[in-house]
Specification:
Cytidine Deaminase, domain 2; Rossmann fold; 11 helices; 17 strands; 28% helix
């Protein structure tokens, strides 16, 4: 059975409790297809109506345009026994006799259900200390049927439920910069916010074009916008507590803008498509003395790669790449990053699937967060190495470390220290 559900804004709940009354009616925005109601107004006692409006409910909610049905609901203050009986009834028949329900309303302050149409009810038990327990019901002339009820705190911190077991306090003050907010970078940005970082800077000069949406996290309604603006708006819409700076600039040609930005950041994720932009970001991050995670897809979507540079312990991206070429005898795999998607003389079909790119971006965010937490004493966040290769659509014939045979295979290894002749590391 598809039970109805009822949402009660916390502001209304507080005002109902503070009224000191035992009963009242509810005006409800109702969606028949969803069997969902949202309390849009209420009365206390026998007629004192308070219409606080819908403006405090989460903006953009799909129920905002639903019709309001006056008096579709009832609320009561009840004895604790009713909620205990409700829990038992839910495991069995799901319903209680209406007379039993009525007998547990405080001071017998009863209001009859509507004669026509459904009647939804909310009940609350005063637990003391300013706490209440709320429950939802579907009432008929004979019984009270359990239904879903949710108290919605319009101003609640989105990630608050994670707080007991995840170090939100340690992450909330840290600052991450994402250079390249394409398919990988947009996924990494979302993941960083999900881990609890509150301060993000997004750097990318590009705009969203039609072909981007096959793989990008932004909605097609954002076509033509800068990628930084589109992702920033998307993240803010989900979490209004985020502090996001947008920099629609080129890391190569506008290094004067990026350089002071990196001085203020705690970690950098580099997910640009081009070799030149990766090297410029590598140089700037190293000069700023900041750890950086470089994320990309190689081999026409065959492999994802992460390289973590942590000065002064490891070398930079160029040191890592030089050692790889020296040890494995393979050609530098990065030039393929410069082959643009779409039309033109350097055409590259869209071989990497968007979801694969999302996997790489989210893993890059995890590596960045783990780096920050390990530096703050969370030893369980240590990574098994600084260079990772992820099998996405593995192909034969690649030398180590890209000789992966299985999809989802993840291989970590250490990266070398700085080369004595590395100009980037030497000037850091």
């Amino acid at each position: 059975m598809n039970e109805p559900a009822l949402l009660l804004p916390s502001e209304y709940a507080q005002r109902i409790v503070e009224s000191g009354k035992d009963r009242g009616t509810l005006d409800i925005k109702w969606s028949e297809p969803e069997l969902l109601g949202v309390v849009d107004g209420f009365s206390v006692g026998t007629g004192d109506r308070h219409m606080a409006g819908y403006s405090n409910f989460p903006k953009g909610h799909f129920m905002a345009s639903a019709n309001t049905v006056p008096g579709m609901g009832i609320w009561f203050r009840v004895e604790a026994e009713l909620h205990l009986a409700r829990a038992q009834a839910r495991r069995q028949t799901g319903a209680l006799a209406l007379e039993y329900f009525r007998s547990l309303v405080m001071n017998r302050a009863w209001i009859n259900p509507r004669r026509h149409g459904i009647t939804l009810a909310l009940t609350y038990v005063d637990l003391g200390g300013g706490e209440q327990d709320w429950a939802g019901w579907l009432l008929t002339n004979e019984q009270a049927q359990w239904c879903y009820a949710e108290l919605v705190d319009e101003n609640a911190e989105l990630l608050a439920p994670l707080r007991p077991s995840w170090p939100l306090a340690d992450l909330s003050s840290l600052h991450a910069t994402v250079i390249g907010v394409g398919s990988i970078g947009s996924a990494a940005s979302e993941a960083l916010a999900g881990y609890g970082l509150r301060h993000l800077a997004l750097v990318d000069p590009d705009r969203l074009l039609g072909h981007n949406f096959a793989r990008h996290r932004a909605h097609t309604s954002q076509i033509g916008r800068h990628k930084t603006a589109a992702i920033a708006e998307q993240l803010r819409r989900r979490d209004g507590e985020l502090d996001i700076e947008e920099y629609p600039v080129d890391v190569i040609w506008e290094a004067d803008v990026v350089r002071p930005l990196l001085d203020e950041t705690d970690i950098v994720i580099v997910s640009t498509d081009g070799v030149d932009s990766r090297r410029a970001a590598n140089h700037l991050a190293r000069r700023a003395g900041k750890p950086a995670v470089f994320a990309c897809v190689l081999g026409d979507g065959a492999f994802g790669e992460l390289v973590r540079s942590v000065p002064p312990r490891t070398g930079c991206l160029l040191c890592t790449r030089a050692r790889m070429i020296e040890e494995s005898g393979i050609a530098n795999p990065e030039p393929s990053l410069d082959r643009r998607y779409g039309t033109g003389t350097r055409h590259l079909p869209m071989t990497a699937v968007g979801t694969d790119l999302g996997v790489v971006g989210e893993l890059a965010a995890k590596a960045a967060v783990a780096t920050l937490l390990e530096d703050r004493g969370y030893r369980e966040q240590r990574l098994p190495g600084d260079h990772a290769v992820i099998g996405l659509r593995p192909k034969p014939g690649f030398g180590a470390p890209f000789d992966i045979e299985h999809s989802c295979e993840l291989r970590w290894r250490e990266v070398p220290p700085s080369r004595p002749d590395c100009l980037t590391c030497r000037t850091a």
